[in-house]
Fold this protein.
Amino acid sequence: MSAIAIITARGGSKRIPNKNKKDFLGKPIMCYSIEAALSSGLFDEVMVSTDDEEIAQIARDTGAKVPFMRSAATANDYATTDDVLMEVLAEYEKRGQTFEYMACIYPTAPFVTADKLQDAFRILKEQNASGVMPVVQFSFPPQRGMAVRDGRLAYCYPENAMKRSQDLEAIYHDCGQFYFYRTSEYRACRGNLEDGYVPIVMPETQVQDIDNLSDWKLAEMKYKMMSEE
């Protein structure tokens, strides 16, 4: 068995400048993802894909590898995570290395821990799944959402307007933290898995999108709460 952890950390960031290397409670935020991957003991290779030399140096100092820099084609605003992962796998293949399993870990995901990665890998193997994804339940049911139409609020799904929340199907969204794959199956479909992803449901206290500085402060508060549990 062989496994690789790929942390996708490009240099550009419009909404929060230098987001991937910004200090998060005492160290660059990307260090949390690297440390979780290393301490999990799951991976033969923990690498960072980046186009930024300062990020590359932080990665090396934290214990990750940066065997090559990201290409210009996968470092622009329009490149997808799948573009980056496919490039990384292809570059390793050129060097004679292939991996049975792969985890993609985002660099702004301080809530990822070694335990969560180990759980995901166990589920991947036990359920013979192609991929595992952490998700979180929407705090308010989207089925009762409203839109502004002609200056007035209108239910998007009027048939659900009077239904109790507990009577509506629970709906989840991607945590934006990590994904675990069987590499061959990922490469065959670039993540559009035919058998779908097995979910790992995360508590809302351990999930936070970080798109602005208010999000950043909320993430720090939640991280402190998680650390005290």
About this structure: DSSP finds six helices and eleven strands in the chain. The mean pLDDT is 96. The radius of gyration is 19 Å. The longest strand covers residues 131-137.
